[in-house]
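Title: Comparing notes on inverse folding

I've been comparing how different people in this forum approach sequence design from structure. To keep things fair, I'm posting one structure and asking everyone to reply with a full sequence. Here's the target:
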């Protein structure tokens, strides 16, 4: 697919809600060439996340991880009012009102967040409107967060009396730090996009009408680069802040061999020398 065709098709997908036939447990997956678009699809309830939705997200991202041709994923909410406004509280009496049920519920969230974070390719969160509670936690499992200036963020769980799980806590705190997370939890405040950008929760801000173009541009730039380089970059940056294990060292050594003895480096150097745009093979061909 040409760059222009990709841009037009991805823009078309992001500018419309997914067809009902593609929605399973309020989550839809669409594909534009080698980029997947995952949509939280409950706009009438601000894309609130049910237990089934969390489980579906884990399944979707586990399946996406098996695709050798995949280059990036865009995660978004249907409509313009919310990425996701937290949990579907109406289902709590049947899913989260005992310690045993809450443990199962929290583990479903943790598994979904790990599946998103561990996907080998970049995951872009496109945030417009509310990203609250589980929605705020979910965007922190993504690699990059691009938000419109009308977005609002927070984790006001003190108003419900639930606790924040360990996986969610680590996911948010690694971006904004424990002190900022404590402020969000203690105050119950929803902060604006500017404050979210200031504390590192969001990497880029756009006007609401420019959000889709910004996301499409980043996805296109990802597609134009070496898949091996970006996969290695995601893994090595994920190692920051923890001791390097023997498995980490083995992984880094493997990537070094694949990069410096593979075709992408040769193509990159040749393209630079010849003053042209590099044309890299797909992920499965590296």
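Reply #1:
Here's my take.
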């Amino acid at each position: 697919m040409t760059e222009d065709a990709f841009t037009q098709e991805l823009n078309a997908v992001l500018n419309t809600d997914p067809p009902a036939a593609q929605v399973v447990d309020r989550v839809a997956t669409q594909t534009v060439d080698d980029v997947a678009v995952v949509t939280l699809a409950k706009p009438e309830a601000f894309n609130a996340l049910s237990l089934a939705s969390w489980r579906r997200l884990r399944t979707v991202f586990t399946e996406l991880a098996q695709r050798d041709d995949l280059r990036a994923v865009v995660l978004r909410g249907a409509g313009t009012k919310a990425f996701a406004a937290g949990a579907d509280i109406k289902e709590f009496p049947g899913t989260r009102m005992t310690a045993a049920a809450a443990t199962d519920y929290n583990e479903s969230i943790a598994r979904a967040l790990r599946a998103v974070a561990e996907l080998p390719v970049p995951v872009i969160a496109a945030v417009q409107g509310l990203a609250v509670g589980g929605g705020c936690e979910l965007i922190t499992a993504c690699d990059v967060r691009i938000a419109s200036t009308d977005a609002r963020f927070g984790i006001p769980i003190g108003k419900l009396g639930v606790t924040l799980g360990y996986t969610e806590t680590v996911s948010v705190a690694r971006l904004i730090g424990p002190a900022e997370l404590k402020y969000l939890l203690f105050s119950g405040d929803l902060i604006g996009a500017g404050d979210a950008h200031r504390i590192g929760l969001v990497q880029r801000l756009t006007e609401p009408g420019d959000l889709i173009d910004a996301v499409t541009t980043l996805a296109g730039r990802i597609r134009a680069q070496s898949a091996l380089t970006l996969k290695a970059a995601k893994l090595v940056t994920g190692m920051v802040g923890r001791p390097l294990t023997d498995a980490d060292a083995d992984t880094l050594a493997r990537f070094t061999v694949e990069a410096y003895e593979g075709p992408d480096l040769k193509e990159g150097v040749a393209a630079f020398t010849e003053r042209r745009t590099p044309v890299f093979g797909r992920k499965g061909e590296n």
